[in-house]
Each structure stands twice: as C-alpha cells, then as structure tokens.
Amino acid sequence: MKKVLAFDMGATSIRGIVGYVENGQFCTKEVMRMSHKIQNKEGRLYWDFDAIAKKIEETILENPDVSAIGIDTWGVDFGLIDKEGNLLEAPHSYRDEKFAEGREEARALLDEFELFQNSGNQIMTINTVYQLLSLKKFDGEIYDKADKILMMPDLLFYLLTGEKIGEESIWSTTGLYDLSKKQVSEQLFEKLKLKRELVPEIVRAGERKGNTKNSKLESLRSLSIDVIPVLGHDTASALLMVEQEKDSLFLSCGTWSLIGTSVEDAKVSREVYEKNLTNELSYKSETLFFKNITGLYLLEKYKAELEERLGRKIPFQEITDFVKKEAESKALLDMDAEVFGREGIAVKKEIDAFLLSHGGTVPKEDFSYFTLIYDSMVEKYREVKEDIEHILGRNFTKLHMIGGGARSEVLAKKIAKKLKVKVKAGPYESSAFGNILLLLLQEKEVGSIGEGRKLIYAASEVKDYS
C-alpha cells in the first residue's frame, strides 16, 4: 500500500491530505491546514509565498513515508525565475487592481475579440496575459531579468524538484494558450510583444516526475519522494470527480463558481465572446466550456463583515435556517460586476449602492443579504445555463455540484428549483480528491480514473436533490 500527499491550495487556505487505498477502501487523512492572506505592500497585492512554501516543506518533512506528492492551486497567478533559478519577487495576487492597466496595454495592441479567438479564455482583468503586460509596464527591471514564468503549482513543483515545467491545465488559464490548437499561442506573444522564451516546457498531467532529492530546499534533499505534475488547476482537478454526461452540467462552487460542460473543441465564436464564456483544458487535454462567476467569495466577505459588526461568529447553520424561511429576493445583484470580486470591498455598502442604482430596495435585515447573495448566484447560473444550451444546441436536465458550496442544502435546492434540474451534490473535497486520484493512478494503486472515482464516491457524502 502506497500513500500519497496532495497539496490543495485555495485562495484563502491550503490543505495537505494524505490519501491511500486500504482493503479496497479509499482513505484520507488531513495532515495540514493553513489559512493565508493576501499581503498589501505599497498598494500592490502579493501572496505570502515564503509562508506557503515553508508550510509545505514542514508538512513533507512530517510525512516522509509518502511515495508521491501533487500540487493544485487556483489559476492565473505566477512567479518569475531568473537565469540563476531565483524567484525574482513574491507572486502577485490576481485581485491586484493594477492589472486593469495591463488590460488597457493589450487593447492598444490587439482587439479583444482577436485575443479571445487566439486563446479561448474568458476576458477577465485577472488573466495572466494582463498580469504579464502590467508587470512589463510597472516592473520592467523584473520583467527583463525573468528567464521563465512558472504558474503557481509549477513554481512549487520547481521548488520541490528543481525542474521548470508548465502543466497544461494551469497554462490553459493564462489567456496565452491557444485552446483550439492546444499549444502556446505564438501569435499572441508576437502581437503583444511578450518574450516567448519565458514559457517553460509544457507537459500534460502525469507525463513527468521530479524528485525531492533535487529540491531547491536543502532539507528535502535527504528524502526521495516523487513529485508528479497532477492537474495543476484546482478546477480541472475537481472535475475528475464528475462523470461527464451529455445532459449534465458541472458546477464547481467555492470562492469562484464555474458552471459548464465538456465539449469536443474550443468554442471561440463571437457569441461565446459576447457571453463571456471560457474554454480550459482538463485531463488528457479534454476541453471544458464554462463561465467563471464570483461565487461564495462575496458571501464569505459579507459574513466576516457582519461578524465584526455584531461581535460574534455566525455559524453557517444559522444562515441556512434563516435563508430557508425567507422569500426569494426580488431585486438581484449582477455577480459579474467586477466590484463584487475586489479584495478590499465594503460588502454591504457596495451591495446597497448597486441595488439603489438599479431601482431596487435595500434589505431590511442583516441576514437578508445572505438570501440576496444566494439568489443572485442562482440567477446567474440560470442565465449561463440558457446561454450554453443555446450555443451548443443541447438541453441540460442534470447538474453535478462539487466543492465547498455543495455542502449547502439550501443552495442546492434553490439551484434545482430555479434551473429545473436534478442536482447531485458532492464530493465536497473534490480538488484534493482529484489530485489524490491522479497520484494513486500514477502509483498504480488504482487501475483507472473510473475505478478510483467509484472508490471515492463510496467513501464520500453525495446527495441528490430534485
């Protein structure tokens, strides 16, 4: 029996989970959980990469009996390595508002629709392409010194193995990868005047192995643990838990909501661009077609704001009990509005301003804002479902909900009712489980993705709503 260690990194917390198969059962043990916050330095937003790397190093040293390690993270963010192999600065957070100027730089060089056609990615200010253009404009010295751009999971892979690679699923979030050709877009690098040599060797999940004996961290070199590039993008990793069916949508519901389906080829028509849908890659270069929407981020931000005002912690069950009893909100928020994804948002103030500017009324009770956020999320899911159905000429009668939001019975029931679909909710730890599944597959502890998925389902809570 081999044990594997998955690092599943979200925008607010990181988990280390050991997984293995024993007596035909899927087993896991959480060995690390760490909250982390975006750092504000002179008006710019960075991840606390040193703290993240230190915690990962400590966790590996505490679990030297594992045979393989995998890392998945959120998309779009990266670090830059110089020719000597040094990280030039801590990675910026995608919530840094300076990236809006990178988007303006791109517009001056290239029509946005042409950029979309050459990448297939939803046009969002957070995209790697805009981050890179912003860096070139504001931190030209760092840009000039850079030898390789490493996406967040690849940066940690490099730290643990000394190898510079780019895993395909995480690169498919950059806005610089041609999803139709499934390769780096030479045209975009040329037209946007970016250094093509920054791109490392692109590999598929599971194609390569590194080892801690070659780590950049001295303490890990005495170990000999394989490090495998799993699906580096947490969404792609999570969706290994979903059995793709013609009449079923997926919904990965966490800080972000991602709702869509799998398709044979990237969709890059004018209509797809105008609806602001996206294409990304999953296991074995499968194309995912969906939309990124601000998800539970807004609810979590409002919850923290209200807790501070009330001077107490608010259990999620208390929120659920209130929302269950309250009527559906009449005036709704546009979850696509960029203001609702900002790091320093004053949530109640911005929600009130949005409602009043759109002819709505402000909720009278504090907890009614939770109902409003849930209902606004569900309405956006409904809109996206209709857009995807129209573009693909398909009718979706089922939806498989994964991630932390799948724990919410009230949210799942609202989705089933509003979207007129049967909802399957779970597993909840889907990103980590997808990571572990690929590691176990590489270690020959499971025979196939399907076999491993069945074992995980049997060991997980999965609920159905109609």
Helix content: 25-40%
Number of domains: 2
Q: How many runs of DSSP E, i.e. beta strands?
A: 21
Structural class: alpha/beta
Distance between the termini: 40 Å
Mean pLDDT: 96
Can you tell me the CATH class of the largest domain? Answer: Alpha Beta
Shape: globular
CATH superfamily of the largest domain: ATPase, nucleotide binding domain
CATH architecture of the largest domain: 2-Layer Sandwich
CATH fold type of the largest domain? Nucleotidyltransferase, domain 5
Sheet with the most strands, sense and barrel status: 7 strands, mixed
* Strand numbers in spatial order across the main sheet: 17-18-16-15-19-20-21
Write down the oligomeric state.
Answer: single chain
* Radius of gyration (Å): 22 Å
Give an overview of the whole structure:
The protein is of the alpha/beta class and 466 residues long. It has two domains: 36-232, Nucleotidyltransferase, domain 5; 234-426, 2-Layer Sandwich (Nucleotidyltransferase, domain 5). Helix content is 38%, strand content 22%. The chain is built from 17 helices and 21 strands. It has helices spanning 49-62, 99-109, 112-119, 128-138, 140-145, 152-161, 168-171, 186-191, 234-238, 270-274, 296-310, 316-325, 347-357, 368-392, 409-419, 430-442, 449-458; strands spanning 4-9, 13-22, 25-35, 39-41, 44-46, 68-72, 78-82, 146-151, 165-167, 177-178, 183-184, 201-203, 210-211, 226-227, 248-253, 256-263, 278-281, 287-294, 398-402, 422-425, 463-465. A seven-stranded mixed beta sheet has the order 17-18-16-15-19-20-21. It has a six-stranded mixed beta sheet with strand order 3-2-1-6-14-13. A two-stranded antiparallel sheet has the order 4-5. Strand 4 and strand 5 form a beta hairpin. The protein is globular and about 60 Å long. The relative contact order is 0.13.
